[in-house]
Amino acid sequence: MGTLLRKGLFNLFMLILGVIMVVPFVFMISASLKAPGEVFVNPMQIIPDKIYTLNYETIFHHKYYFHWYWNSFSTVVMTVLLRGLLVTMAAYAFARLSFPGKNAIFLFLLSAMMIPHDTTIVAKFMLYKYMGLINTHWVIILPAAFDVFFIFLLRQFFMGIPKDLTESALIDGASHFGIYFRIILPLAVPALITMGLFTFIWTWNDFISPFIFINDINKQLVTVGLEYFQLEAGKNYALQMAGACLIVVIPITIFAVLQKYFVQGIAMSGIKG
Amino acid sequence: MEMQSDFDSGGVKVTIQTKKYTIVLLMMMMLLSACGSKSDSGDGKTDEAQNNGSASKERVVTVYEDAKRAESEEMKKKIADFTKETGIKVELNIVPGDGVEIYKKIDVDMISNEKTDIIRLTNPILIDKYGSNGWLYPLDELMAKENYDATKIYGKYLPKFQDGKTYVLPDQAGKWAVYYNKKIFDDAGVPYPSGEWTWDDYIETAKKLTNPAKGIYGSYMLDYDNYMYMLARQYDVSGYKEDGTSNYDDPAFKKALQFFGDLGTVQKIQPSWLEFKSKKLSWDGFMSGDYGMHFIGTWYTNQFKDKTTYPRDWKVGITQIPVPADGKGNNNFGIVAGYGINKNAAHLDDAYTYVKWMAENSYKYNGNLPARVDLSDEDIKALFQKTSDDLSGEITVEELDKALISNNLGFVDEKITGPGSTEYSNIILQEAELYLVGQKSLDDTIKSIKERADRAIKDAAQ
């Protein structure tokens, strides 16, 4: 009986947690179907009396929305590819190669993780401007291509792969590139997919970088693009929610397809979202 | 040395398969990069703005605007008329975000010496901040060259700065009014407010309108900083003492904060601060039709014109703002908004032409009250007629005139402006909230605001 009660309470707790997680999503869909002036009317109606489709019509006929969508998609894919290449190579170097100052460099890189992103905005702006990256998509892609957190994560993962495998390959005449491509990467697929998914979602959802570093409306990414939907003295939440509903389609689809690897990767690497 | 031995043992051999992977990867990157560059080029229109016209000789001026204003028909018409009249092309640098958020982006641009020419500053705190930070180009020389007498045109609305220079020409001097929902008045059998009235009258009227069973409040106010000290401003009590320190220990500020808090918690005529915040009531909440009266600036008139965003089955009225019963605070208040030129502007002369033109003509397009003191009564009446027409006669010219011009009220700034005013404003909001939700006593709140504001003013001076 006690076990049943405990189980029941646990299920109830999990159900409440689940509802809490789902409420913002329901609000997003509900608000997208309301007139802008009705979004925050109390008490909130989950299913509005009158379905207001003008928000979606506005989105579908918007001059820039799908342009922003493509900008986001291409930027994110580029970031995932570049990060996949650079970060795995760096992680391999830190995990398998020996060179003077390796640990010092690694610690130095790790210390960069401790600096809050917001405090470096102006310095980054000046640097990117000097490099001619401001107002291009490279200003998002290049800085994101090298990520210390994932270097650390993959280094740990690569170190967990038995050295015997790579040493045997070396004895058999394989190069480090060969070992990296043929042995390490295939064994690290779940971790790579986890990195790819996190990179995709983080870059897809990034607001501050495109907001600060991209100026032209036609170059913006979709997250910042939503901020163009405004009323006189505040956001047009109804229109923003309609845009947001379309934004989440891609991450949800990718997550659904790669969920198995994603969970496996998290379990193996110990990432906590 | 170990690294050397590692490579010695393995060597850097690139197999055919590795080459294939690399080529495929590079091709994918180039493909996406090409797609990205296609989007980069876009329609080319805003790229020109970025280049600031360096490739062409045409006269151009670049302007920061928020998305709402940039998309509005009145803005498009205004820009078209400006270009037609001056031959100067306008390129908008549209900043995402609302009227507050856009300045986070513009701040970074200013620090980084960006060259967009024009910045519209929507309230006196921003005007003060941008002028005092040295981000704006002084207009005095440019005005002197053509004997442009800004004081004669803008009078008391011309923003003043500590160094005595002119950095901003005002295009708008909004006032405050009470908008009311005629349906709620009719349903409650309460006559519409008109003419002079006191805050006591306002509270009594709101009580008659408040009907908790129907979810109706008689009054609605927002969470802006100036609501916390509106009564003090009506008495024209300054936020600074003569020695430059904060004047928030003046009893008028204490009384003002208590008055505002009591409207929700004691009089119960409007949502309390806690209710406002916890229910996330919004700036356009009055448009829901659940509130009898809304005390707000005249910029709000535009909401009543927009029946697509705010479909409504009730009519709106307007009347002048209430005043303290002792007769010593017979003032309306409002804010001045205006245009300044970026000190790094790429097109200085054309930017000056733009600022001047917009300051003189904006009111003809957006229905806001002009900041010009040289206009005739007929000019103002014509402006009110346009507003009345846009509202299909819901508010008449006479009602607008009585509420905003032909009354017994003086005019004072609604905001506390001066050294460190941005931080000062943040401090008031942070500390007053603690009082309004019952976490801090009124005396402690006032003391904290005074102490923190003094520090902020001192820091700003340094």
Automatic annotation (TrEMBL), chain A:
InterPro entries recorded: MetI-like, MetI-like_sf
Keywords, in A-Z order: Cell membrane, Membrane, Transmembrane, Transmembrane helix, Transport
Pfam families in alphabetical order: BPD_transp_1
Membrane topology, from the record: Multi-pass membrane protein
Matches recorded under PROSITE patterns: ABC_TM1
Coiled-coil positions: none
Naturally occurring in which organism (per UniProt): Paenibacillus dendrobii
UniProt-listed Gene3D superfamilies: MetI-like (1.10.3720.10)
A Gene Ontology term for the protein's cellular component: plasma membrane
Protein name: ABC transporter permease subunit
Localisation per UniProt entry: Cell membrane
Cell membrane is among the record's keywords: yes
Similarity comment: Belongs to the binding-protein-dependent transport system permease family.
Transmembrane domains' residue ranges: 12-33, 68-92, 104-126, 138-158, 179-202, 237-258
Top-level taxon: Bacteria
Keyword set includes Ribosomal protein: no
GO biological processes: transmembrane transport
Residues of the ABC transmembrane type-1 domain: 69-258
